[in-house]
């Protein structure tokens, strides 16, 4: 297929359709509304189901219903609307239902504004709703990577029977870049024998529920979930590195911010500072391995985020006291520019010598 | 070669579309491109801007701090972006509306009477193409042919008849630069 010029939000929608998602329940909110609009336009063309719900809460519960029937299903929102969905995400996790939830983050807290932010990191990586659960979180940094990770989100959801979050920010949702949709073979996944599609008279009725009144049974269910999360942690960690091999200092950044950091790193290298980057692609499970590899080799880490400092906590856990971990961030929808990131790098390198 | 272009003006002046056309044309030339709009709570008559990067190499940050080219279509945009233009860069000014003058002597300034030229062509709607004509003539970032081809792709059926006027507008913009109507930086 030739390259097409599209907005990030539209790329997510088209990539979902390419991944076989024909069911979408959503509610518009800036800066992700183009995703809803695109689905409203496209899904009827392919005999899919688009439904604009009366609220985010309704949309996520419709997702629960569709997922129970075993079909690929997606919903999307931006920070305040994503918060509203949390009860439903917890139910999906509890009932072990596969679904993809998109969060195109914006400045907060509260209603905040509509500019890009990464301040939902805690929420997406530590469960978000009530109860002991995690959701895999994928964080693309380019529009082409959205294509790849949206497909992966559906595959992970089905393989592990879990809700999966695709996390971007307003910048990723609003920007345009050329993308190419490749026709890939569908991954062979376990048959959804649990789906409530009717027993046709043979066998016991299938029940999808997150309710378990017996405490011991619910503890056993929690053990099952935790074992599943362990498997995901072992098998599904993804990250990228940039100019890391000979690095004396290391930036840690994800999503669009990693692109700004890249420009700053290139400039810092021209100034003689040996700096590289670790870019987590899965935010949960957090990639601990590259930190184990580099924490004894580098002099210091710098976490760069569009937040007041959230991922930096996971960086500190992964570095485990073996090297200093500094932080630079902007909040409230302000996009850091590469020269302030460069200044932060210079001060890190100056302070570390 | 990397061109970092900011286009800014009133909402409704075609800022986003001009940027999209450049990005599209860059893509048809197999260049790396990115298009990033300002998308605050904008409204008709408010100011809007778009950042377009056209590059031979993969693009890192789509955010432009110091543009190599700033195209400013109104006074507020001039005030905001004229000081940010990279040393040795270009400021292209919509002279029909902007009455401010750049005092910088380290950038090239091209002033384009867009509305006057567009009305001579007989189509006020092609003012943006006059500016783009001056831009591509000066920067050689993309060819005029790619712009025309892209217009054919992005314009709806109903608007295809505007292509000849746009082509003329691109040529008139280019001829301003060819004729040397440009204030060069003082070496």
Automatic annotation (TrEMBL), chain A:
* CDD domains, per database record: TPP_PYR_PFOR_IOR-alpha_like
Q: Which GO molecular function entries does the Swiss-Prot or TrEMBL record give?
A: oxidoreductase activity
Q: Does the keyword Secreted apply?
A: no
The protein's UniProt keywords, in alphabetical order, are: Oxidoreductase
Start and end residues of each Pyruvate flavodoxin/ferredoxin oxidoreductase pyrimidine binding domain: 14-193
Q: Which Pfam families match?
A: PFOR_II, POR_N
Q: Which InterPro entries match?
A: 2-oxoacid_oxidoreductase, PFOR_II, Pyrv_Fd/Flavodoxin_OxRdtase_N, THDP-binding, Transketo_C/PFOR_II
Please identify the protein, giving its name as recorded: 3-methyl-2-oxobutanoate dehydrogenase subunit VorB
Ranges where the Pyruvate:ferredoxin oxidoreductase core domain occurs: 247-340
Give the species.
Answer: Anaerobacillus arseniciselenatis
From TrEMBL, chain B:
This entry's Gene Ontology molecular function terms read: oxidoreductase activity, acting on the aldehyde or oxo group of donors, iron-sulfur protein as acceptor
**Record-linked Pfam families:** POR (PF01558)
- SUPFAM superfamilies xrefs: Pyruvate-ferredoxin oxidoreductase, PFOR, domain III
- Tell me the domain of life: Bacteria
Keyword check for Oxidoreductase: yes
Residues covered by the Pyruvate/ketoisovalerate oxidoreductase catalytic domain: 11-174
User: Keywords assigned by UniProt?
Assistant: Oxidoreductase
Protein's name according to its UniProt entry: 2-oxoacid:ferredoxin oxidoreductase subunit gamma
Which species? Anaerobacillus arseniciselenatis
Q: What is the lineage of its organism?
A: Bacteria, Bacillati, Bacillota, Bacilli, Bacillales
């Amino acid at each position: 297929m030739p390259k097409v010029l599209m907005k990030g939000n539209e790329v997510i929608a088209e990539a979902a359709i390419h991944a076989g998602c024909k069911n979408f329940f959503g509610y518009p909110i800036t800066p992700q509304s183009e995703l809803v609009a695109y689905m409203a336009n496209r899904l009827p063309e392919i005999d899919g189901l688009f439904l604009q719900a009366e609220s985010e809460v309704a949309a996520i519960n419709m997702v629960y219903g569709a997922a129970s029937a075993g079909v690929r299903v997606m919903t999307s929102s931006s920070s305040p609307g994503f918060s509203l969905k949390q009860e439903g995400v917890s139910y999906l996790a509890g009932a072990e239902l596969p679904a993809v939830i998109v969060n195109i983050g914006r400045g907060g807290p509260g209603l905040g504004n509509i500019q890009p932010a990464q301040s939902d990191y805690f929420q997406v990586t530590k469960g978000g709703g009530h109860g002991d659960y995690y959701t895999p979180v994928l964080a693309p940094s380019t529009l082409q990577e959205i294509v790849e990770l949206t497909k992966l989100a559906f595959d992970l959801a089905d393989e592990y029977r879990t809700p999966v979050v695709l996390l971007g920010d307003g910048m990723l949702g609003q920007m345009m870049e050329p993308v190419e949709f490749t026709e890939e073979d569908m991954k062979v996944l376990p048959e959804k024998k649990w789906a409530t599609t009717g027993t046709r008279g043979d066998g016991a009725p299938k029940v999808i529920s997150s309710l378990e009144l017996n405490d011991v049974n619910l503890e056993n269910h929690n053990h099952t979930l935790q074992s599943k999360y362990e498997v995901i942690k072992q098998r599904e960690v993804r990250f990228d590195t940039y100019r890391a091999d000979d690095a004396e200092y290391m930036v840690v950044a994800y999503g669009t911010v990693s692109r700004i950091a890249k420009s700053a790193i290139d400039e810092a290298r021209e100034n003689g500072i040996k700096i590289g980057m670790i870019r987590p692609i899965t935010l949960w499970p957090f990639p601990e391995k590259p930190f184990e590899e580099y924490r004894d080799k580098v002099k210091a880490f710098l976490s760069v985020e569009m937040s007041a400092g959230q991922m930096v906590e996971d960086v500190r856990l992964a570095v485990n006291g073996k090297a200093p971990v500094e932080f630079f961030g902007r909040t409230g929808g302000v996009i850091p520019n590469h020269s302030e990131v460069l200044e932060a790098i210079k001060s890190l390198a100056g302070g570390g010598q | 070669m990397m061109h970092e272009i900011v286009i800014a003006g009133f909402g409704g002046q075609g800022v986003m579309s001009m940027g999209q056309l450049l990005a599209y044309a860059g893509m048809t030339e197999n260049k790396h491109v990115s298009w990033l709009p300002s998308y605050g709570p904008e409204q008709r008559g408010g100011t809007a801007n778009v950042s377009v990067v056209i590059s031979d190499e993969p693009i890192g940050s789509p955010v432009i701090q110091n543009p190599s080219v700033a195209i400013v279509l109104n006074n507020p945009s001039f005030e905001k972006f004229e000081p940010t233009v990279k040393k040795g860069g270009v400021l292209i000014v919509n002279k029909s509306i902007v009455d401010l003058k750049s005092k910088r002597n380290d950038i090239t300034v091209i002033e384009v009477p867009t509305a006057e030229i567009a009305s001579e062509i007989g189509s006020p709607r092609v003012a943006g193409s006059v500016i783009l004509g001056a831009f591509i003539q000066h920067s050689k970032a993309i060819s005029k042919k790619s712009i025309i081809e892209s217009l054919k792709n992005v314009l709806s059926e109903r608007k295809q008849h505007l292509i000849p006027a746009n082509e003329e507008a691109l040529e008139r913009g280019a001829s301003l630069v060819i004729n040397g109507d440009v204030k060069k930086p003082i070496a």
